[in-house]
Design brief:
The complex is a heterodimer. By secondary structure, chain A is mostly helical. Helix content of chain A is 74%, strand content 4%. In chain A, strand 1 and strand 2 form a beta hairpin. Chains A and B meet through helix 1, helix 2, helix 3, helix 4 and helix 5 of A and helix 1, helix 2, helix 3, helix 4 and helix 5 of B.
Chain lengths: 292, 163
């Protein structure tokens, strides 16, 4: 099993962007980020009431992300182009370190929690397998074939993409599936999970620590976005919630990838072999890529 | 073309300097946001960001210099946990200053870079059909709820009191 490449996707990307360029020189990018952050913090968090007792909190973190995307896409803003996006991507890879360090400090301070709640922390990693049971049948009903194996076996961030490409090859249907998941997850994932977490903490009576652990889905930005509303909903538990998110991250990044390789992918293959003849539809992928 | 350094993948002095300058920029932006949003004193949160930047720097350096096949994220986690452990001589100092930097201030800056970086994927995103969006939403929701429900059940079974 070629896991050596898999674990270094972040490193290779960061090195390419940071060591070969001088990202700190791109002052237009950093000043833009500073302006976005100032705007977002001045507006501050807002709550939108949907119905009785259900509210969605919109955090400054969403403003900066959406504004960042808008700045890139807006034609009049000439100083944020593809080059800046590449630099921003490299910067983000290093920035993940700051985020992880902050969570780790909270985890160290609350180390007793891991002894008290270790089983829950470990086993919730297996809860991620729920995606196979839920999303695979739907993918088959929508007419996906082998693509569905890449699309539904995991959350589909960089390490999982590397695993699938490594196992099935770059041009395989499985890889096409996880590329689609990766792209859509990149664009809508963070906003979606933030709303999901926000509605869930006010509507579903699960333990606050369960929400904290669940936020470690294996993507730093989704983790951060789902932690925001959880912290806002339980302000008294701030350090514990950060600690659980830190532990959960540590687990996702150390054993998460092995769960994908040794459990998730084989399970998806089995379920596919069983369900595809029963509920599989006519393949849609050929026409779609050809027609558009 | 002036940006061309050398072909090696190893950490050069130049590379470390790049990282340090980038971390300094992150720290300044985060501290300003942290001041506007949460009114934490700038000097204290700057020290906090200094500590976090140092952990990050050591983590990425260890990943590239040590012969083990371990991601920097794990090194950073382990260093962060160790220096904040109750009883460690660094613990009080680290905790005081790092707690001056709100997690959400860090995330707000982080996601600004993510937002600009994701712009590159916009055209590819538009080319994908609605079916891919449906599946992605299902994958994220069931990953999140799967973990939350398993964690909740185990917490209740092991008798952790609801808060």
């Amino acid at each position: 099993m070629q896991t050596s490449n898999v674990e270094h996707v972040y490193r290779d990307k960061t090195d390419k962007r940071i060591l070969k360029k001088n990202p700190w020189k791109d002052y237009k990018l950093h000043i833009t980020v500073l302006v976005l952050v100032i705007i977002a913090q001045i507006i501050g968090p807002r709550e939108i009431y949907i119905a009785n007792g259900v509210e969605v909190s919109i955090m400054p973190l969403l403003y900066t992300m959406v504004l960042g995307l808008v700045f890139y896409l807006a034609k009049p803003i000439k100083w944020i182009q593809r080059k800046q996006a590449r630099v921003a991507e490299g910067a983000m890879m290093l920035f993940i370190g700051i985020l992880i360090a902050k969570l780790a400090v909270s985890s160290g301070h609350s180390i007793h929690l891991i002894f008290e709640m270790g089983p829950a922390l470990l086993l919730q990693e297996l809860g991620h397998l729920a995606t196979i049971l839920v999303a695979l049948p739907v993918a088959l009903l929508l007419g996906f074939k082998r693509e569905s194996i890449g699309m539904t076996s995991s959350i589909g961030r960089e390490p999982e993409v590397a695993v699938i490409v490594d196992k099935y090859g770059f041009n395989s249907a499985e890889s096409r599936g996880i590329f689609a998941l990766f792209i859509v997850g990149t664009i809508i994932g963070t906003v979606f999970i933030s709303f999901l977490a926000s509605i869930s903490v006010s509507l579903i009576p699960l333990h606050p620590f369960a929400f904290a652990m669940a936020s470690g889905v294996g993507s730093a930005s989704m983790n951060a976005a789902s932690l925001g509303p959880t912290l806002a909903a339980f302000p008294a538990l701030e350090t514990s919630i950060e600690a659980f998110a830190g532990f959960s991250n540590l687990l996702s990044f150390s054993i998460g990838i092995y769960i994908v390789i040794f459990i998730a992918i084989p399970l998806t293959e089995k379920l596919y072999a069983w369900l595809e003849p029963i509920i599989g539809r006519e393949a849609i992928v050929k026409e779609e890529t050809g027609g558009e | 073309m002036a940006d061309f350094i050398d072909g090696s993948e190893n950490v050069t002095v130049h590379g470390i300097l790049n990282w340090i300058l980038l971390l300094v920029i992150f720290s300044i932006i985060t501290v300003i946001g942290n001041y506007i949003g949460y009114e934490h004193p700038m000097a204290d949160s700057l020290v906090g960001m200094g500590i976090l930047s140092l952990i990050t720097l050591i983590g990425v350096w260890m990943e590239r210099e040590l012969p083990f096949n371990i991601s920097s994220i794990l090194y950073i986690s382990i260093i962060g946990i160790l220096i904040a452990l109750p009883g460690m001589p660094t613990s009080d100092f680290v905790l005081y200053y790092v707690s001056q930097v709100e997690l959400l201030s860090i995330v707000t800056v982080f996601l600004a870079y993510v937002g600009i970086g994701m712009g590159k994927s916009w055209d590819e995103f538009k080319a994908l059909g609605w079916r891919a969006v449906v599946i992605t939403v299902l994958v994220i929701a069931s990953t999140y709820y799967g973990a939350a429900i398993v964690a909740h059940v185990i917490l209740v079974l092991t008798g952790v009191p609801a808060v």
